[in-house]
Amino acid sequence: MSAGTELDLVELTAGVVLACAVVTLWRRDLRALVAVLALQGVALAALAAVLALHTGDVGLGVVAGVVLLAKGLVIPNLLARVVRRDPGSRETTPLVNVPASLVAAAGLVIVAYLSAGRLTSLFPSPMTRLAPLGLATVLVGFFVLVTRRKAVSQIVGLLLVDNGVALVAFLLTAGVPLLVELGASLDVLLVVVVLQVLATSMRARFGHVDLDQLRELHD
Amino acid sequence: MSEAAYLIGLGAAGAAALLGATLPARRRVLGAALLSSAACVCAFLAAGQVLVSGHAWSAHSAEVLPLTGVSLSLDPLSALFVATTALVGLATSWYTIGYAAHSAPSRTATAMLPAFLGSLLLVPTASSVATFMVAWELMALTSLLLLLNEHRQRDEARDAAQWYAAMTHVGAAAILLGLLLLATHAGGQTFAAIAAHRGQLSVALRSAVFVLTLVGFASKAGAVPLHAWLPRAHPEAPSPVSALMSGAMVNLGIYGIIRVGEDLLGGGALWWWLAVVALGVVSAIFGALHAAASADVKRLLAYSTVDNIGLILVGVGAAGALAVSGERLLAALALLAALFHLVNHALFKGCLFLGAGALQHATGTRDLDQLGGLARRMPVTAALFGIGALSISALPGFNGFASEWLLLESLLHGFADHTDATVVALLIGVAALAITGGLTAAAFVKALGVGFLGQPRTAGAASAREVAPSMLVGMALLAASCIALGIAPGVLLPVLERATASGLAVRPPSPLRAGLGLDLTGASGAIEPALVLAGLLGALVLAWVLVRLPARRSALRHARTAEAWGCGRELQTARMEVTATSFAEPLQRVFVDVLRPDRDLEVTHVAESRFFPQAISYQHRIDDGLERVLYRPVIDAVSAWGRLARRVPNGSVHRYLAFGFVALVLILVVLA
Amino acid sequence: MSPAAITAALVTGTATSTGLGPRIAASILQVAAVAVGGPLLIGLMAKIRARAEGRIGAPISQPLRDLRKLVRKERIHAEHASAVLTLAPLVLVASAAVAVAISPLVITTPVLAGGADAFVVVYLLLMGSVALALGGLDPGTAFGGMGSSRAMTIGALAEPALLVSILALSIQAETSNLPGIVTATLAHPGWMANPERLLALVAVVVVVIAETGRIPVDNPSTHLELTMIHEAMVLEHAGPDLGLVTLGEAMRLGLLFGLVANLFFPWGIATNASVAHLALGVGVLGAKAAAIALVIALIEVSTAKLRLFRVPELLSGAFVLAVLAVMTGLVTR
Predict the structure, then answer these.
(1) pTM of the entire structure?
(2) What chain B residue is nearest to C97 in terms of C-alpha separation?
(3) Domain boundaries, chain B
(4) For C332, which of A16, A22, A130 is closest by C-beta distance?
(5) First and final CA of chain C: distance in angstroms?
(6) For B495-527, what is each residue's pLDDT tens digit?
(7) C158: Cβ–Cβ under 8 A, 6 or more apart, which residues?
(8) B524 in contact with C at a CB cutoff of 8 Å?
(9) B34-66 pLDDT, tens per residue?
(10) Phi and psi at residue B615, in whole multiples of 5°?
(11) Which of B583, B525, B499, B619 is nearest to B251 (CA)?
C-alpha cells in the first residue's frame, strides 16, 4: 500500500466517522441511529486496520479487530435489540429541534477546527492534521447527550464521544496500546449493557424510555 | 475643472434648498427639483472626471468654518460615493416633480430635500475631522426633519423619528469621540495629517478608534444589531427620502468604515475585520429573513437594505482580513466586489423605493395584502419595479448578479489564504450569501407577484392609475442603469479599480481583466453576462416559435380565455388569492425561532352551535426580535432615569440657576 | 499541472484546441440530448417505480408522447392572468437551455468555456424558478399562489446547500468554472474518493431531489391540490404552455443529473469535438444519468413523502453536510 493511498483511506474513514456523528442529529428514527452508529464503528475499525497495515503493527491490527467486533457489531446489536422491543420509537421532540441542532453541529465543527490548530501544530504530520475531525465528533456526541431525550439516543451520544476520542487517539499517536483500547471497549460495552437493563426496566415500570420524565423521580 | 463642477453642484443644492424655502407653493417644487437635478449632474460630472482620470484634488478654505476651516478632497474612493449619490439623487429629483403633484409637500420638506442631497454629496468629500462631523450632522439633521414631515398624519412617523434621532446621535457621538481621539494623537485634524502619522499610534489606540467609529458607522449603515431605526425610518419617510436613505445614506456608513479603517488607520488587526464580517453575516441573514416575512412593501425593502448592507460588509471585512494577511490581490478583489455591490444596491434599491412610492400614491396603501393586479393598471411602474426586483434577486443579466458573483468569487478565492480564522470567516460569509440568495428571491417574488399580478384585493388597488411621467422617468433612469451594468459589468471596472486602490491601505495589482464581462486575473473565473443574455433571448424566441408552429397549422393561434381552476368551485374571488402574509407563511414557520411572530386567533361561534363559527379574526405581526431583547432594557432603564430626573425640577428659578452654577464650579475644579 | 494552472489554461483557451464552430455544435448537441433525454429519464424513473411496485408501467418514452400531445392542443389562457403566465414557460425553457448549453455535459468545453461558471448555472436555474413562481401567482387563484409560496420556500432552503457544496468543489479545484472543475477532476482521479467530495455528493443529491420535486420532498404524480407543490404552481398552464413547462422541468432534471454525474465522476466525457468522442460522451452521459435515475427512483420507492414542514430538516441536513465537506477539505488540505 502506497503512502498516498493510505492517507486517502485514512481521510475517507475519518470523514465518514464525523459524517456519521452529524447524521445522528439528522435522523429521528432510532433504528437509523443505531445503523449509523454501526457504520461509524466499522469506519473506525477500518481506519485502525489501515494504520496497522501501514505500520505493520500487529497490536494495532488486533485493536482494529476489537473495535470492529465491539463497536461495529456487538454494541449496535444490543442497541438494536432495545429498539426492536419498542418499534416505531422516534426521537420526536428533542430539546433542540433538528434544523437548529444541525446548524449547531456546523458551528461545533468550526470550533473544533479553530481550536485543534494548536494541538495539531505540536506534531505536524499528514495524519495529525485530521485531528479536528475527531474533536468535532466528540463535540457532536456531547451535543447529542445534552439535547436528546430517549435513552437509546443518550447511549448513542456517549458512544459518539467514545468513538471521537478513539479517532483523535489513532490520528495523534498512530495507535492506542492494545490494553487501553481493550479496557475502553469493555467499559463501553458494560455501560451499554447496564443502560439496556435500565431501559428495559424503565419501560416495564413507566411504559416509555424518555429520560426527561425521570425528573419526576426527584419529587 | 472637477473641483469647480463639484463646488457649483454644492452651490446648486444650496440654492435649491433656498428656492424651496422661499418660492410660492406651486413653483417651489419644480424650482427645487430642477436645481437639485443640476446639482446632481454637476457632482456626477466632477466625480466622473476624478474616477476616469484618477487625479484627486483637495481644497481648503479657512473662512467658511471658524477655527478649523473647511477641507474638501475628492479622491476616487470618495468620487465613487459621490457619483452613486448623484445618480440616485438625479432620479429622485425628477421623481419629486410628479410625486409633489399628488401630495403637495410642505415648505420645509421641499427645502430640506435638496439640503439633504447636498449633505450626502458633501460627506464623502470632507477631508478633515471638523468638516466631516459638520457634514455628517447636517445629513442627520436634514434627514430627521424630512422624516418628521408627516408626523401630523401618522403617529408611526413620530415614533420612527424618535428612534432615528436617538440612534443617529449616539452613533455620531461615537464617531466624534473616535475621530477626536485620533486627531489629538495624530497631531492634526486633516485626514492627510492623520494618515501620515498613523505609524506612531499605539495598537490599543487604533483599535479603540476603530471600534468607536465602527459603532457609529455601522449604525448609520443599518448593520444588525444597530439597525433598529432603519426598518422604522425608511418606510415612514416619504418615498423620495426613503430612496435617498437606502440608496445613498446607508452607503456612507460603509464609506466611513473603509475610510477610517483602511485609509486613516492603515488596516490594523485581523480581529477588526473579522468583527466586520460577523456584523455583515448577522445583518445579511437577519435582514433577508425579515424581508421574506414582511407584507408591507416599504418595510420589506428596508429589511432588504439591511440584508444587502450585510453582504457589502462581508466583502469589506473579507478585504480587510485578506489585506492583513498580505494577500493584496485577493483583498482588492473583495473590496472591489463590495463596492460594486454597493453601487448596484443603490441603483436597484433606489428604483424599488421610488416604485413603492408610486404604488402608495396610486393605491393609498403600501400593504401588499391589499394590492394585486396592478400590472394591468400601471404597466410601466410594474415593469420598472420588476427590473429592480429581478436585479436584487441576482438573476443573470441584471446587475445584482454581476456583483454577487464577484463577491462569491472573491470569498472563494480567498480560501488560498491560510489563516484559520480568516478562512472560517470566508466560509461563513459564503453561507450567509447563499442563505440570503434564496430568501431574497422569495421576498421579491412575493412583492412582485402579490403586488402586481393576480386580481386586485381592494377597491383602492382596483381603481389605481399609472403615475405621472416624471416619476416614471426617475425610476426608468435607475432601472436602465441596472440593466446596463447587468449586461456589461466590465465597463465599470476601471472606475471600481481606481476606487479600490484609493481605499485599500496597500496598493493592489489589478484584480480583473478589462472587457465587457468579468474575468479574474489572479485566479480562474469569469462570467460573460452579455453572451448569456443573448443566448437567453435567442432560446426564448426559438421556444416561442417552436410552440406556435403546430398551433398555426391547426388555426388556433389565439388563446381561448377560460376561468381558472377553483377546485370545482365556481366564482374565484380575490378573497381566495394568496396574500403576502400567506405567501410568507411557510418560510416564517421554518424560521419561527428567529422571527417569533405574534399570532392571535379569535373565533366567535354562533349561539346555537359551537360547530358554526360566526366570526373569525386573525391578527398577525412580526416584531423585531432583537429589538425586544437588546433595546427594550435600555429604553426601560433610560425612561426610569428620566422619571427620576423629573423629580428634581420643581419650578423654582433659583434651583435652575443653582444647577448651572454648581456645574460651572465643578467644571472649573475638574479643569484645575 | 496544478488545478489552477489547468483551469487558467482552459479559461484563456490554450488548452482547447477545439475551435468555436465545433464547440457551438457540441452545445447544440447537448441541448438536444438533454431535451430528449430529460423526458426519457422521467419515463425511466416512472418505469422503475412501477416495476418495483409490481406494475408494468407506461413505456419509457411516455413523457415524450405526452409532450407531443400537449403541443398540439388548444391554447387556453386563465381569466385574470397577464402576459406573465405566457412568458413564464418560455423563460423556464430558455434559462434551462442556456444552462445546458454552457455546462460540461457531453464535452468538457462547450461554448463559453471561460464564462461557464457554476454560479451562473445555479442562478439560471433560479431564474426559471422565479419565472414559474410568478406564473403561479399571475392567475390570482388560491392553488397557484400556494404552490409558488411552497416552491420558493423549498428553493430558498435548497440554495444554501447547493452553493456551499459548489464551494467545496471549487476550493479543491481552485475555480468555480464548471469545465475547470471537471478537467481538474479528470486530472486527479484520486479526488473522487475524497471525503469532502462524498459529503458534497450527498448534499447535492438531496438538493437535486428537492429541486426536481421528487419524493420525499414533493410527489410528481400527485393530483390532490393541497399536497401539491410544483403541480399546484403550474395548474393554470394548459396545452402548448404546459408542454413547455413539462419540457423545461425535464431539461432541468436532465441538467442536474448530468452535472452530478460529471462533476463527481467525469469519466467518459468528450475532451474534444470529434464525432467519435461526442458520440461516446452522449452514450456515457446517458448511462450515468440513468444510473442516478435508478438511485433516485429507488429512494422514491422506499421512502414516504415528508410532511412539508419536515422538508427543512432534510435540507438543513444537506446544508450541514456541505459545510462539513468544506471543513473536511480545509482539514485535509
Answers:
(1) 0.93
(2) B539
(3) 269-542, 577-621, 625-671
(4) A130
(5) 17
(6) 999 999 888 866 667 778 877 888 887 777 888
(7) B438, C207, C210, C211, C315, C318
(8) yes
(9) 999 999 999 999 999 999 988 889 998 887 777
(10) -145, 140
(11) B499
